[in-house]
TrEMBL record:
This is Alpha-glucoside ABC transporter substrate-binding protein. SUPFAM superfamilies: Periplasmic binding protein-like II. It comes from Streptomyces liliifuscus. Residues 392-412 are annotated as: Disordered. It comes from the Bacteria.
Length: 412
């Protein structure tokens, strides 16, 4: 947990509480940007950074003590909170920064509103390797462990494959629970992943299931799967955020499309993720805080405080002048995100309702251990059952529609 209370005096109101996912160097950079925020109101801020974000927020809501502002990466969770009237619609100045596909509007009681805004974004659909490595027969690094959310590196694989094989329209229907998990395109994505991974020994499977996506820790901390002992691999499929482990000059990053067996017309389509700020408080200062954090000045302040490996990425619609790249890797990622990408689609599992997303994570772990046709049939039937149940249970008597558009042309 990172705590920040600048300029606190006995005459000031209670600090605004910001709950977010960033710890370590990322948390320190955000904390420093928040510390430099001068909103002219005399308010103070407390930042709580945690890797167990959903569990922390749920417990705070159950205790009727929510944060003033929470920063989440799951559209599915944000949609759930909006449906329960736990989120406050954003003021107009902030809503104008709700760039697609990170912040789709919601239709609630006949009114279309914006309930969250991206503070930073991440580009997925990327593959990492060492310079000079041959791509003729990639040996894939896979680490699926991640505390309470183990399995998401595998769901990223399946999502990216489906996006490039079936295209944005099918991907969007599937991510928003309008397409059955028994659809042939969905099944093909799972089987393609198994084919790409190839034959693996029981020892290799167990190693991947129990090793963090950050790789095996070394003397200085995590060192990435490409540099981890015991992993005889040459390529890794991972989001842009992993660059904090791969900032050296001997590592390269490239689009994932050519590895996935997709169609040429979807080559410049990319999956993206983001960290979105939402207001849980009636305090007008909470709205003002999100407005300032999402402003060009707030983004520039945060970017200037962060080390190169964890410097936040922003879409070119964020109102910022082009930043001087910290290194060739950041330059390549920024170029892909803001110049070469034609279509951006939000991370599918982060769009799904939490119950379905969690079931997807578990199914990936089971499939990784046993990719047989019979087992896959069973897993897809289970996921389809969860999809139908969640859809039936979501009706609560209010006029509410979840987002259906989670893909957009690059740049909005």
């Amino acid at each position: 947990m990172l705590t920040l209370v600048p300029g606190c005096t006995s005459d000031t109101p209670d600090p605004l509480v910001v709950l977010g996912p960033w710890t370590g160097e990322e948390g320190k950079a955000f904390e420093a940007a928040l510390n430099r925020l001068d909103d002219g109101t005399g308010r103070t801020y407390t930042y709580e950074g945690t890797r167990s974000l959903r569990e922390t927020l749920v417990s705070q809501l159950e205790a009727d003590a929510p944060p003033d502002v929470a920063i989440l990466n799951s559209i599915g969770e944000l949609t759930e909170y909006a449906r329960r009237d736990e989120l406050k619609p954003l003021v107009e100045e902030t809503a104008e920064r709700a760039y697609p596909p990170w912040a789709p509007t919601l239709l609630v009681d006949g009114r279309r509103r914006t309930y969250w805004v991206p503070l930073k974004v991440d580009l997925k659909s990327l593959v990492w390797s060492k310079e000079g490595t041959s791509s003729d027969d990639p040996a894939w690094c896979v680490g699926l462990a991640s505390q309470a959310t183990s399995g998401w590196p595998g769901t990223d694989w399946i999502e990216d494959i489906l996006l490039h094989q079936a295209g944005p329209a099918v991907y969007e229907e599937w991510a928003t629970s309008r397409l059955s998990w028994l659809d042939p395109a969905v099944r093909q994505a799972w089987t393609t992943w198994a084919e790409l991974l190839g034959d693996r020994s029981p020892e290799s499977i167990e190693r991947s299931l129990t090793t963090s996506y950050e790789g095996v820790p070394g003397p200085g901390g995590p060192r990435g799967l490409l540099d981890s002992p015991g992993f005889d691999c040459t390529y890794e499929h991972q989001s842009a955020f992993i660059r904090y482990l791969y900032a050296s000059e001997d590592v390269r990053v490239e689009p994932s499309a050519r590895f996935l067996g997709g169609r040429a017309e979807y080559r410049d389509t990319y999956e993206v993720a983001g960290d979105m700020a939402a207001v849980f408080s009636d305090d007008p200062a909470a709205q003002e805080l999100v407005e300032r954090l999402s402003s060009p000045a707030g983004r520039k302040r945060w970017q200037s405080e962060a080390d190169p490996g964890v410097r936040p990425l922003f879409p070119n619609t964020a109102g910022l002048p082009p930043a001087v790249p910290a290194n060739p890797i950041e330059q390549e990622i920024d170029d892909l995100l803001n110049s070469r990408a034609r279509t951006l689609c939000f991370d599918a599992s982060d769009v799904m309702p939490p119950e379905l997303r969690d079931a997807f994570h578990r199914a990936v772990l089971e499939f990784f251990r046993d990719p047989s046709k019979r087992h896959l049939d069973s897993l897809l039937r289970q996921l389809e059952t969860v999809r139908v149940q969640v859809d039936e249970e979501s009706a609560d008597g209010r006029s509410f529609r979840p987002p259906e558009v989670i893909c957009a042309s690059s740049g909005g």
